[in-house]
């Protein structure tokens, strides 16, 4: 339950459907989830470029960036991660309402949090993409040197090391980034979206 009382929902003069019609495409969330270093940001940004070239309005929300601003008050305890994802879910919903495709790149380690976001949206508005990569490969990549620090105990509660990651049970798509190239993963996504008439 929220804390605000005496608030009334306002219907908007321009609807989500109006915006979709004008944009000439559907609006929805592509929710990337996976370990740090699995490839969420890389693939989300590569896909965003492809969608942009196809004149599909889109925006990437990225864990690191959002934690610099909107969610700068949150850390990495289970409770803070849950609040992080709840807020991002609400922001993503606003983007969908604005007629855009939103690509989110958050570890989002807990199933219940991801389900909460799915349930905020309509059935055809949430696509869960599991960016799957074994921990040992993510650790080898270690693009930001964070795994090394986590192993040394400098970073506590690090996902995969000292904090859990719950794999999706039935994601719309799984991308195995230790087996396929960035381009192949993007192609897999484009094929899926086309096959569902989403783009
Ligand atoms: N303790 C700990 N655990 C995991 N990740 C950490 C941690 N501390 C900092 N970082 C950096 O923060 C990025 C993850 O932020 P997210 O908002 O995606 O995390 S979460 O969804 O709330 O779990 C993550 O970015 P990605 O590597 O892009 O996943 C890290 O760069
Ligand atoms: N198939 C692939 N898909 C995505 N990234 C890959 C792939 N193969 C290698 N990489 C590399 O792995 C790293 C993934 O980092 P990043 O996208 O920041 O991951 P995350 O956002 O999940 O933390 C990048 O350095 C990227 O170039």
Structure description:
This protein has 199 residues and is of the alpha/beta class. The chain has a single domain (16-195), classed as P-loop containing nucleotide triphosphate hydrolases (Rossmann fold). Helices cover 42% and strands 13% of the residues. The chain contains 8 helices and 5 strands. It has helices at residues 16-23, 40-53, 63-66, 78-97, 111-120, 135-141, 146-151, 182-195; strands at 29-33, 58-62, 101-105, 126-132, 173-176. The chain has a 5-stranded parallel sheet with strand order 2-3-1-4-5, with helices on both faces. Helix 2 crosses helix 8 and helix 4 (78-97) runs parallel beside helix 5. The longest helix is centred in the middle third of the chain and has 20 residues, at 78-97. The chain is globular. The N and C termini lie far apart (36 Å). The relative contact order is 0.20. The structure holds 3'-phosphate-adenosine-5'-phosphate sulfate and adenosine-5'-diphosphate. Adenosine-5'-diphosphate binds next to helix 2 and helix 8.
């Amino acid at each position: 339950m929220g804390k605000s009382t005496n608030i009334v929902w306002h219907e908007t003069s321009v609807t989500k459907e109006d915006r979709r019609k004008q944009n000439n495409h559907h609006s929805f969330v592509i929710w990337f989830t996976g370990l740090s270093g699995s490839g969420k940001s890389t693939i989300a940004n590569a896909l965003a470029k492809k969608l942009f070239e196809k004149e599909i309005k889109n925006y990437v929300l990225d864990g690191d960036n959002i934690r610099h601003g909107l969610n700068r008050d949150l850390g990495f305890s289970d409770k803070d991660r849950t609040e992080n994802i709840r807020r991002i879910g609400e922001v993503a919903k606003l983007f969908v309402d604005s007629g855009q495709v939103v690509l989110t790149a958050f570890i989002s380690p807990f199933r219940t949090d991801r389900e909460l976001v799915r349930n905020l949206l309509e059935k055809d508005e949430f696509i869960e993409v599991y960016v799957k990569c074994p921990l040992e490969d993510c650790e080898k990549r270690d693009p930001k040197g964070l795994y090394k620090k986590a192993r040394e105990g400098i970073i506590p509660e690090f996902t995969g090391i000292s904090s859990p990651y719950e794999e999706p049970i039935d994601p719309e798509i799984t991308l195995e980034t230790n087996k396929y190239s960035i381009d192949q993963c993007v192609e897999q996504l484009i094929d899926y979206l086309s096959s569902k008439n989403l783009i």
